[in-house]
Amino acid sequence: MDIDAEEEIRTRTKKIRDKHKTFSQWQGAISTIFVWSMLGYTYYTIVFILCYPLIQGVDITDNASANGGDINIKDNLNPHQMKLFGMIAIVIYHIFLVLSLICYLRTSFSDPGYVTAEHVQSLAMNVVNSTPRNMSTNTPASTRYCVYCDLDKPPRAHHCRGCNRCILRMDHHCVWVNNCIGFNNYKFFLLFVNYILLLCISVSVLIVLRWVLFGGFKSIPKGNVKHIQLFITFVLSFAFAGSTFMLAVYHWKLWLTNTTTIEDLEHKRSYDLGSALENASQVCGEDSHLLWLCPVRTNNRDGLTFPEVLIA
Ligand SMILES: [Zn+2]
Ligand SMILES: [Zn+2]
Description:
Number of strands: 10
Number of helices: 7
Strand content: 5-15%
Order of helices and strands: HEEHHEEEEEEEHHHHE
Largest sheet: 2 strands, antiparallel
Strand order of the largest sheet: 1-2
Helix content: 55-70%
Bound molecules: zinc ion
Structural class: mainly alpha
């Protein structure tokens, strides 16, 4: 092949890669706007429509009131119960919201584990020095070459077309957090999915409890704007809880079998160590299990070598 033809192929490949990257960036930007809009709307309804009026001792059921649509609580409602419920609701909501936001930001803005030349060098050194027993670290024969990054791919690393980089222990590229999910941020992603699930469930339950405990469904006047806003928030959070639950269950399975989404799609199970606890430790580390629930890094591994079950 002459030099011109090679150059043309290289230019064409680069254009395709740039197109993938731009498309992925647009997808990520739209998803990010959607996520923040949803969080903003839910925050407004839960804090300013559900909790704050209860804490202040006002009811939102009468639009005719001169007080911005609110009237003082009715005789049959206990003001202390309303205040207590409002305060508990606002605390529960903020706990799950803050945890979800920290996990979201850490997943979104972490280096997921971009493969560098130093990684490849370090991997070569690891393989030379390793003395496997009943398990083995991966050998050079199992490393693959990435033509786009011009680097050897460590075991479990894959090239992401969205990021245009190779990622250590790549799981998938997530448009919702606009980042790749790899070795460095998989724990944050896992926690994000679980905390956002708890946030959606808590929002749905708090809205239903608000209706049931204070007045009942029959007391809700037709066409009341604030109750309609609460209803919209309930429907959205309930729907999100359903879809997030399915995603969470899938990732619990992957976590407890030490498998990535890519490996699962390829039906590979060579890193499943047989014990759910050992598999979970591969992601969250072997130290304090309580820290597993916190959005901090607890895994001291390098993301280059992994215990692999030997197939006899
Ligand atoms: Zn690559
Ligand atoms: Zn990516």
